[in-house]
Amino acid sequence: MVDDANLTIGKVAKRCGVKVSTLHFYEEKGLIRSWRNQGNQRRYKKDVLRRVSVIKAAQKVGISLADIKKALATLPNNRTPDKEDWLALSTNWRDELTAKINYLEKLRSSLNGCIGCGCLSMSNCPIYNADDKLASEGPGAVLLDRNSVLN
Amino acid sequence: MVDDANLTIGKVAKRCGVKVSTLHFYEEKGLIRSWRNQGNQRRYKKDVLRRVSVIKAAQKVGISLADIKKALATLPNNRTPDKEDWLALSTNWRDELTAKINYLEKLRSSLNGCIGCGCLSMSNCPIYNADDKLASEGPGAVLLDRNSVLN
DNA sequence: ATAAAACCTCAAGTAAGGTTGAGGTAAAGC
DNA sequence: GCTTTACCTCAACCTTACTTGAGGTTTTAT
């Protein structure tokens, strides 16, 4: 029987609601760490539970694993991260989330104002530029890609 | 020289701000249509410009190509879609966008508290109990062990 | 002691949304 | 007429985030 500070991969998976294969994958990607017992099986300290939960939370914000990894790399590795450490991460992510929300709100008003009312055919539509006048000269239809937060 | 109601793929690509390969891909997926000229080259009617722009707009909302295809399939195919037709699509997408914005706002308001204080382990944590179905970014719902994730 | 459950590695597969390249044809410009 | 640009098909590849499966070992339970 392993004690609570010496978790098996199955325990971690169950308690975090992820599959064992996900933990293998995260370890391979450098997002979490483990050591091995005498029989070559992975063991984790409790710390990993929070890491995995934070990874999942950040994914909901839309942060990629690569960026999550970078953020986790800023945590201290000489001691267990404390409340302040986690707070610093979440503050950054909250700001990204705010930017994303702002973008989506702008997009929503474009949908309302442009697609909804039919002005898609007009040259000043932010989503779609007119085809007639701009056809031979300008760059043509200008999509929102330029300012996209998401893409 | 092709006239304006008889667009080449290059023209469509340039005016919509996408690559030629993207148009091939969309056609293969049934999102747009074309006919062929004598030399087997694709030709499009102007209609396609709006379709592609709407596809791009919907993608920014977070709609998958499969769902966009379904939505586009509700457009009339006996006539060019009019204002009312596009309105129906955009209204649905706007509602999805609103739901998504609401979800992200809820997520934002709980992000610092959850990550910082450790309530990730609790059954009332908003991050894990919000409508995960709306979290179309990132993987789906994560069902945590209600009793003991972190402790 | 033995069987079942859990774990291991490594390769391959999945899904979305495209992109890239090879080998060849068509259209446009001078 | 010749050359460059544009277009064609088909297959393979890319990225993200994992999952699945085969074949084999370790732990745990009875």
Structural commentary:
2 copies of one chain form a homodimer. Chain A is mostly helical and 151 residues long. Chain A has 2 domains: 1-59, Multidrug-efflux Transporter Regulator, Chain: A, Domain 2 (Orthogonal Bundle); 82-151, no CATH class. Chain A has helices at 9-16, 20-28, 47-61, 65-72, 83-116, and strands at 7-8, 35-36, 42-44. The first copy, chain A, has a 3-stranded antiparallel β-sheet. Chain A starts with 6 loop residues before the first strand and ends in a 35-residue tail after the last helix. At the A-B interface, α1, α3 and α5 of A face α1, α3 and α5 of B. The structure holds a DNA duplex (30 and 30 nucleotides).
**Helix and strand sequence of chain A:** EHHEEHHH
User: Quick check: average pLDDT of chain A?
Assistant: 77
With helices defined by DSSP (H or I, 4 residues minimum), what is the helix count of chain A?
5
Number of domains of chain A: 2
Largest sheet of chain A: 3 strands, antiparallel
Total beta strand runs of chain A: 3
How much helix is in the residues of chain A?
A: 40-55%
Residue stretches of chain A low in confidence (pLDDT < 50, at least 5 long) are 120-124, 128-151
Biggest interface in this structure?
A-B, 57 and 55 residues
Oligomer: homodimer
What is the approximate shape of chain A? elongated
Features:
2 domains; 3-stranded antiparallel β-sheet; 5 helices; 5% strand; disordered C terminus; mainly alpha; Multidrug-efflux Transporter Regulator, Chain: A, Domain 2; DNA-binding; 3 strands; 151 residues; homodimer
